[in-house]
Structure formats: structure tokens, C-alpha cells
Amino acid sequence: MTYSVLVVCTGNICRSPAAQHLLDRALDDSVAVSSAGTRGLPGWPVDERMAAHLRDDGVELGPFRSRPLTGEMMAGADLVLTVTAAHRASALALHPSAVRHTVTLGELSRLAAELPGGSVQGATDAERLAALVPAALALRPRFLGQDGDDDIRDPYGRPDDEYWRSYAWLRRQVGRLVTSLHGGAGAVGTPRPR
User: Fold this and answer.
1) Which three-class secondary structure string do you get for the chain?
2) Domain holding 74: CATH number?
3) Is residue 191 situated within a structural domain?
4) How does pLDDT run across 125-182, given as a tens digit for each residue?
5) Domain limits at 112?
6) What is the rounded distance in angstroms from the CA atom of residue 48 to the CA atom of residue 53?
7) What is the pLDDT of residues 72-123, one digit of tens each?
């Protein structure tokens, strides 16, 4: 069983490709991770300042080109992770029936961290994700009305420290999600500023 994860931001050159590469490095081969942008810039590479953070972290970028999000991509994904609530709304406008498996990365990682240890079972990351996502999302009612600060600002065109903050946030969310998925093991760690 292959579990498909699609990460969504705006241009698909900063936040979503960074999250895609971090998730791809952290998860086993049973999970296929890709990304797209609500206003994707077809054919563009990862923004160089974001790519530098990934390379400094030992992440191999390989061939990557930005692409615009489509309803077909949404339909083909088992899990759609967006970097903001606004991206979630835009993505769902393309494919409303994906509502049960479209969530911000920040919210999913925050809710997953609330799951009791040992509650996610499975032999592969695909099986564990298939168990973790509904279990984590079932916790949503406990946090209604609370500001989870689940969005990350777009660093594109901003000063270098904004790229650093964005990358560190993505790395933290991916690390928290992977830790929950693996029962406390396999954290991504904390990167150093450039």
C-alpha cells in the first residue's frame, strides 16, 4: 500500500517543496510525497534561499519543478497538507470532497502530538499515517475556539531571516508529526540558522 501526501502552498517554490523534501526524507518508501501551489509557478525550481536551508540540513533536492494545484491532484491524494488555513480553503474549492483528508500541517502536527503514546500502530509509515490522521482529526472538538497558530507566513521576497523562520517552523512541524507517527522516535531535529 502506498500512501500519497500532497503539500500545498502558494507558488510551490518555498514552503511546500521544503515540507515535501523534509517529509520525504523522514518517511519510508510506503509514502509518496509531492507538492503543488494554489498559484503554482510552472517549472520553477525551489527558491534558492529555501534550497540553501534544505542543503545545509543534508536534504537532497533532486529534480524539482513547481506546479499548480489541480482537483485531480487533490482527488489522488490520501492526505493533503496545506501551510495555511487559506490554502486549505483554496484547495477545497478545487475538490470539496477532500475535506476529510485536507488539513494544515500545523494543525495535524499539533493534534498528533496530543495522541497517547502507542496509539498509532502499523508496520509501515503508510499504515501509521492511515491510522494517525483520523485519530488526530478526531481531537479537533477539544480545541475549538483556541488559536493553534497553525499558519506560516510566506517568506518569498522577504529578508533572509524570514526564510529561516519559515524553514524552522516547517522543520518543527514535520518533526513533531514524525515523532507522533513513530511513537517518540525519528524526530527531524532542530536546524541551525544560516
Assistant:
1) CCEEEEEEECCCCCHHHHHHHHHHHHCCCCEEEEEEECCCCCCCCCCHHHHHHHHHCCCCCCCCCCCECCHHHHHHCCEEEECCHHHHHHHHHHCHHHHHHEEEHHHHHHHHCCCCCCCCCCCCHHHHHHHHHHHHHCCHHHHCCCCCCCCCCCCCCCCHHHHHHHHHHHHHHHHHHHHHHCCCCCCCCCCCCC
2) 3.40.50.2300
3) no
4) 999 999 999 999 999 888 876 666 788 889 988 888 999 999 999 999 999 999 999 9
5) 3-181
6) 9
7) 999 999 999 999 999 999 999 999 999 999 999 999 999 999 998 888 999 9
40 touches 12 (CB < 8 A): yes
Among 46, 49, 48, smallest CA distance to 24 is for 46
Q: Is residue 186 part of a domain?
A: no
Q: Is residue 194 part of a domain?
A: no
Q: Is the pLDDT of residue 191 over 70?
A: no
